[in-house]
Amino acid sequence: MQPRRYQRYGLEVPVIFSWxxxxxxxxxxxxxxxDLSVRGAFIFAxxxxxxxxxxxxxxxxxxxxxTSPVRLHGRxxxxxxxxxxxxxxxxxxxxxxxxxxxxxxxxxR
Length: 109
Hints:
With about 110 residues, the protein is mostly beta strands. It has a single domain, classed as Roll (Pnp Oxidase, Chain A).
């Protein structure tokens, strides 16, 4: 097994994702990340985009005592779809076209 090019972080963060396919207009759903890296993510979801679909995704990492919320977003291609079975939920892997963008959100007053 080849080592991964980018460090993956096991973070469960709600994510909104959307894609288009040839038959229907824009599709959108929500999921939960299993892990993230600067170049991709694995997302658990009830609705699975097709393998090869171009996907946009965004999420907000919640604040903690030391940091304000961080918004992340990216665009990439679905490279693997895993159908759920038994106790394993369904999900998909997305490879980002560029590094996933992280931006600090200003605190609301």
